[in-house]
User: Fold this.
Amino acid sequence: GLSLGIALRHHGVDVTLHEASTYPRHRVCGEFISGVAEDTLSRLGIAHSLADAVPLTTACWSDAAGPLGSMKVTGRGISRWRLDENLQQTFTDLGGRLVTQSRIEPGTGIIWAAGRPKRPGTWLGLKFHVRNLDLTHDLEMHMGATGYLGLARIENGLVNVCGLFQSHIGIKAKGPALLIAHIRAGGLQKLADRLEAADINGSSFCGVAGFRLGSQPGPPFSIGDSACMIPPFTGNGMSMAFESAECALHPALDYACGHQTWDQAAAASKKAHHQRFRRRLTIAGFLHSLLTTRFGMRLTTSLARHRAIPYGLLLQLVR
Assistant:
């Protein structure tokens, strides 16, 4: 929402952004930006907001038995706390009105950017930051029996730890211990030991449940996770949020200038989303199913150990 708000303010459109909580705050997010074009960031007017991001160039995949493969990446690591802080400052400096602790209903003139809709599902997203954790690569991806997680370098020497797990009713832990418990339940004992030996920032812990991946049944003019959610293993979610704002920019401007009705603008934005994200959502959904089923895991790890997975090609297909 902030990215689109900034872009609209650059075009002189009056914008009021309602936030149910406060800015900034910790959010469940991989905090790894990869795939968004510099032109997109420039058109939105937010390139400078990523000045604090850490360049990330190497990545690896592992399972409980050890490394599966490595690859070169082009990405940036930045916490949602820092990114949202930068974006809200830019938005208000441009004259945008930010109303926190405020909830509104969908309607004409309201672009819905309220995050993932609540939907019945078995997935659980968990995240925290750690310090004094040595990484083998800038981005580490770990696959377990109950899900997967990523470790990414972010600003100030911190590492973001964020995972997607099948909800495990037998786990009673709370806070950071809940994430550690899910890692152990997935068979990733060595990784859990590494994290417990590091300095965990308990205040950064957060979790989210009750959601499904893919296209979302939100209001007609929705952006970000309210419109669609790509499986997090792709590392493309934050980039898609920026791209989603770009998809909505011209329809929103056409409505603001009186060139389109609200329904026409909403339809144009939805069409732009579909054209831009359909392929990557379809491919990512298929790959996600391989990473989260026993058969798929066996097949994937076997191919990886025989060096038969084209990591570079797969990365391009989910961008």
Q: What stands out?
A: The domain at 2-317 is CATH 3.50.50.60 (FAD/NAD(P)-binding domain).
